[in-house]
Amino acid sequence: MDPLIHHRPSTGLQGKFSGEYVAAAALLDQALGLRTFTDESVTRPEVHRLVKRVEVTESAIPPVGPADWKFSYAAVEVQTENRGTLSERANVPRGDHRAPLTRDELEAKFRDARGLLRQRLGRDALLTRLRNIDTTSRFTGLVAA
Questions:
Q1: Phi and psi torsions of 42, nearest 5°
Q2: Residue ranges of domains in the chain
Q3: Which of 82, 110, 123, 124 gives the lowest tally of CB atoms within 10 Å of its CB?
Q4: The model's pTM
């Protein structure tokens, strides 16, 4: 939790270091991506209202699931008005070699990153070229694409 130094972020950069903001944005937007960490996203009024209701804590014993874990864990509990408390726990972050992303998830991340660039033309063509790289020969087409 040491990097989580911004409890009430006001910029996109501060949002990257705020557990409260990440939780609020995930609940509001149903997903996290690069746009999550823009100044515009962080300064939304509905985000500020929800960030005030988020509590980030640290515990040596997971509050959800079995008490044992290998390297680390993350647990989230959400108290709702209609459905009670919902909880989820992860011992391995998505994208780790022990929980790799699917091809579709990797492509979605690529499109998310490519979507922030000013020139959006050709992103599908670039993805197709990357997807079809022949790993046995030298690839020189990336700059041209």
A1: -70, -30
A2: 1-56, 59-100, 101-145
A3: 82
A4: 0.77
Q: Which two tokens stand for residue 60?
A: 């040596």
pLDDT in tens, 40-92: 999 999 999 999 999 999 998 888 888 888 888 999 999 989 999 999 999 99
Instruction: State how far Cα 102 lies from the chain centre.
Output: 15
CA atoms of 107 and 85, how far apart (whole Å): 33
| Cα gap 60→129, rounded to integer Å | 46
**DSSP structural state of residue 43:** T
Average pLDDT of the chain is 87
C-alpha–C-alpha distance, residues 83 and 76, integer Å: 15
28 Cβ neighbours under 8 A, 6+ residues apart: 44, 46, 47, 50
Q: Which CATH architecture has domain 1-56?
A: 2-Layer Sandwich (3.30)
Which of 42, 34, 46 has the alpha carbon at shortest distance from 14? Answer: 42
Q: Write out the two tokens for 24.
A: 């609020």
Instruction: Find residue 85's DSSP bridge partners.
Output: 79
